[in-house]
Design brief:
This protein is 33% helix and 22% strand. With 453 residues, the protein is of the alpha/beta class. The chain folds into 2 domains: 217 residues, P-loop containing nucleotide triphosphate hydrolases (Rossmann fold, 3-Layer(aba) Sandwich), CATH 3.40.50; 197 residues, Nucleotidyltransferase, domain 5 (2-Layer Sandwich), CATH 3.30.420.280. The strands form 5 sheets. An 8-stranded mixed beta sheet has the order 3-4-5-2-6-7-1-8, covered by helices on one side. It is elongated. It starts with a helix and ends in a 13-residue tail after the last strand.
Amino acid sequence: MRFDTARFLTDLGIASNPFQDRVLASDSRFKLIRAARRVGKSFTAAKAVMPYVLTPNTRGWIVGPTYELAEKEFRYIVDILARAHKKLGLPKPDVLHSNPKMGDLYIRMPWGAEVIGKSAERPLSLVGEENDWIILSEAAQQKSETWYRYLRPTLSSRMGSSIFPTTPDISGSWLYELELNIPKTPGWELFHCAAWDAPHYKKEEIEAARAELSEDAFNEQYGGAWSFHKGRVFKAYSRAAHVVRPFQIPLGWRVWSGVDFGSRDATCVIWLASSPEMDFYAFDEYYESERPTEVHTAVVKLRDRVLPHVVRVSDHHALGKQLVTDWRVRGVPTIDAKVDRKARRDRFMAMLEPRDYHLPYHARQLGMSMGKYPRFFIMEGKCPNLEREIQLLKWKEGSRQEGTYGDTIGDDHAIDATEYIVHYATRGRRYRPVTSEYVQDTRRRPASALTGY
């Protein structure tokens, strides 16, 4: 039987809103609630676990970065149970301890259901139990091993569920990477709510905060958006502008493939399709490390079988020089990109910049009008490593001087593979500043830089 959470909360006179209703109506086993401050994400998480709390012999944990932060959802559950006792005659808890300073957050109901508050500061307290549900409070402020090493295994024996209520934080890159994989991971669902989508926020207050806060702080705290802006290489990139719904590549479009060779590091292959207007759409990737060349090339050839003729580009220098030969011998030849890092990175940055008076293919299909669009897009869920690298690649401190384009922190294997394609495919083309259209540069160039002829 399905517990009617919405009716239960209505009978208690507890208010809701469309965002909270979507979360409560979802059957997904794992729910990531990424939202602005004070939109009710903790209250929503507490509401969502009530079917478990009212079921005999269940156990659930609320795990916060500290006991004080875990106490938020715990307090909401206590308040709901108190209201249910008063309005519906539901029995009171047999045991109720609510002392976060002493690390004591515990509820036991007469039917055996338990609610336990935990702190991630004490990881050894997170082992040895099995759970029906977990709330990972302020997940972006927690370490990845808290979820992957300690909490996820506790849900397996009972096929339990988990809720991640959080406001984005620059330290939560692991959660951002997890989010990128949600579209292709069964059982997971993302819910997002900005302050302007919450009915209780006043518009004038939001605009006042926009004027007072930095762009990063406003995007995180009021937009509920990931903001890794500080030191980022690709500051123009945003999921809203560059990630689009997957679509069938039209016949006649050129298909490209870029390869960044690796041995111990990851070997990455990116597939792009270019429209007649030279907009690029990344639609597939291969990203694996510590595998032999035979495995890499076998997978690439298998994926190529369902595609039209593919033009494949790579770097033929350094490590790539030998691997180019190895791949060619196994039936996967590549063209030499013949470009330095600064030139290809500049070109890729330009493709990410939104331009006026442009209408890419996917926007036309949706009936949208001419506007401000970039020329590079990623199909949602198809290239998670490319998304991750573009978002997280940063400059090293003090490396913004000329000649230091290689001084970055973070993986850039998928980025390199993509840059090879973009630069090679657009060589000999230039921007027309007003319309941002690419046009073929037909000016005659001297054969000799020395003589000019």
